[in-house]
Amino acid sequence: MLDIRDLTTSFGPVKALDGVTFTAPKGKITAVLGANGAGKTTLLRTVSGLIRPDRGSVHLDGQDLARMPAERMPGLGLAHVPEGRGVITELTVQENLRLGGLGRADRSRPADFERVYSIFPVLADRRNAIADVLSGGERQILVIGRALMAEPKVLLLDEPSLGLAPRTVAQIFELVRGLAESDGLTVVLVEQNARSALSIADIGVVLNLGRLVAHDEATALAADEKLRHAYLGF
Amino acid sequence: MQQLLTTSLTGLTLGMVYAAFALALVLIWRSTRIVNFAQAPMAMITTYVALVVVNAGMSYWIGFAAALVSGLVLGAVIERVVIRQVEGKPEINAIILTLGLFVVIHAVAAIIFGSSFRSFPAPFGLRGFEAGGVTIALTGFAVFSICSVAVVMLLLVALFQHTDIGLKMRASAFNQEVSRMLGVRVTRMLTLGWALAAVVGSLSGLLIAGGSLVYPSYMDSVVVYGFVAAVLGGLDSPGGAVVGGLLLGVSLSFVSGYVGSELVAVAALAILIVVLLVRPAGLFSHATARRV
Q1: Which of B167, B179, B186 has the CB atom closest to A95's CB atom?
Q2: This prediction's pTM
Q3: A22-69 pLDDT, tens per residue?
Q4: Partner-chain contact A50 B185, CB within 8 Å
Q5: Angle (deg, nearest 10), helices B186-209 and B220-233
Q6: Count of domains observed in chain A
Q7: Which residues form the domain of A28?
């Protein structure tokens, strides 16, 4: 599980994250919700080491990741699928996956392509295609598969539904749900599409202007009309 | 017919050497988005290292190896100490820095090695072959030049396409942040990129010097031709750099042979102007927007 305590990040005088504290339990999906500018992406980027926090801690298996550089994260079991997907379009599907596998902690066994190809058959069909030709949904699947190649314990997903048709979003969310349940993966899912996110999440966390304003079971948050209207837009 | 063959072969040989220099420029451009104006003096100073080794009595090949190794080290040190300061900053900073390095390395070479003209050996001889009574204007050294550049290119292709570290280097060049997130130590890959580019540059320095004279500015004319070759092929394309170098070498050889050697520099710059007017991104570039 991922234990975030008092995480605070500033950009100059602006506090993008202000004392954020919550725990993302193992094997469950924790949705991080809120309006534009609430600090959701900053939260993920701080957890994954791209941004240094002012203070606070991020504990995974007893280790504090808060001030470690991003390059160390896959080796420690943390995978981050960024906003905008982060497909390396000049490489092939297989090369993107192979690159993901290079980051895994346990190098004693070869990288497990077959597992990723069996979970995502569309990648198997396109394995030698240059990633640039993939559709938006296929790219999202590619980057999730690439993250899985590193055999992570924690998966951070930043707005996977962006630009995708509702049916594709539903399929991808179902896949993520399945991974959380079968692999005991701790999933932190940042989404603007709060309704869809809450439909597959176990826990929901709402950010507003860098502060945590709600932390409850997903079903409770979805049922709370005042909260939904105030922060989530539905 | 004899002149045609001679001109073509000379052009091919020279073209391979320009291709090596252009390749060094392209490698650095692709990995760090910096045009390395200091590439020529870097190659020059490593050739001086070889000269010192050879003049101390050791074989040409030890000098050759010494030049390549010192290129590797020089490239890595320059990236780590100097270039690292301006990566990710406005491009003008890198331009000023590499131009500054150009001047500094020249001065250091003149101080340490003196600015007199010194001759540099060429292995495999400088005489053409005879075949059936016809002299082929391909010297042993020219064959060596062509083969060594070809071998280096094949090794680079093998490195980039078929090894893990090559994949990491390519990923670092295409998308630094995503590569970091996947566990790649991007800064190390950039240092390695500069080190490899410097080795390729050193090779071109040795090949230009072979059988000719070495002095601190001997590589500077190659700079122009190397840049033209890199732009001709497309700064983003290593294959383009090779083709650009060969095209340039052959074209300039024909200008020199059939028009007049005084016009070679003019011809090179004329080619540059035409390329920039007609296809500014180069012959082999993929000038498309990148979506992720």
Answers
A1: B167
A2: 0.87
A3: 999 999 999 999 988 889 999 999 999 999 999 999 999 989 999 999
A4: no
A5: 120
A6: 1
A7: 2-87+154-232
